[in-house]
Specification:
By secondary structure, the chain is of the alpha/beta class. The protein is built from eight helices and ten strands. The strands form three sheets. Strands 1, 4, 5, 6, 7 and 10 form a six-stranded parallel beta sheet that branches. Strands 2-3 form a two-stranded parallel ribbon. Strands 8-9 form a two-stranded parallel sheet. The C terminus is likely disordered.
């Protein structure tokens, strides 16, 4: 994972963290054991961990600065929070505000009915130094809903989460990565100071706090493929890509 290039900051995107052996069935789930191995690899390689608001406030690229993010707010993220807290690390959780403490209701993937983090756990996480961010009220594809509904989904999410944690919500992540200029403007108008996409690459390559890029961590990522992903800033970092990068072929 170490590199002589100045590739940071890098943002990693997780969703579900499962207490299982082997590879979870859902692409967006990572086993807790692999998650721990990935975090320890980054620590051993000298990466500095920050939350998203700390990243966007500095905005100066460095060689090994990384932010860990979790989308949706599944209850199974709590052991990952504990693992990070034990190591004295921080991360950012993007929460669907209408589903805090309630089963997931979006029906476009396998997670329908999954339990979500509740108010008490979110408060505990904040007190331990974790950042909570907005992920809309209902997990809609924001670029596809009527413009008049954006305020409720985006501003409403911020209002609900600030009431829950009794603190400021500064960062947002677009559900499904769905955004356009109108959605970006609505996020900015709601008072957020940054927003994450699902596009891969260097976090700041677009020089836009509201279009931060992230690398997706998949269920099948081995420690080797994870290291290549971070080093190459690609979601699919095959050995062929490594050779192409090193040789310029």
């Amino acid at each position: 994972v170490q590199s002589t290039r100045r590739i940071g900051p890098v943002i990693l995107m997780y969703h579900s963290i499962e207490l299982c052996r082997g590879t979870p069935d859902w692409l967006w789930s990572v086993s807790l054991s692999r998650f721990n191995d990935q975090i320890d690899l980054l620590l051993d390689a000298g990466w500095e961990f920050r939350n998203i608001s700390e990243l966007e406030s500095g905005m100066t690229p460095t060689d090994r600065v990384i932010a860990i993010t979790f989308d949706d707010g599944y209850l199974n993220n709590f052991p990952a929070y504990e693992a990070l807290a034990e190591r004295g690390l921080t991360a950012t959780w993007y929460i669907v505000s209408a589903n805090v403490g309630r089963p997931a209701v979006w029906s476009d993937d396998t997670t329908y009915g999954w339990p979500m983090l509740d108010t008490s756990k979110l408060k505990e996480m904040v007190e331990a130094g974790m950042e909570i961010g907005g992920h809309s009220r209902h997990h809609y594809r924001l670029a596809e809903i009527p413009h008049g509904d954006l305020h409720d989904e985006i501003q409403g999410c911020r209002d609900e989460l600030e009431q829950i944690i009794h603190g400021s919500i500064n960062s947002f992540a677009y559900p499904h990565g769905s955004h356009n200029d109108q959605v970006v403007a609505a996020v900015s108008d709601a008072g957020y100071t940054s927003a994450c996409t699902t596009k891969a690459g260097h976090a700041l390559v677009d020089n836009d706090n509201f279009r931060l890029r992230r690398l997706a961590v998949y269920s099948h990522d081995t420690l080797s493929s994870f290291a290549r992903k971070v080093g190459l800033l690609r979601n699919e970092a095959t050995w062929r890509r490594v050779v192409e990068h090193l040789t310029g072929i």
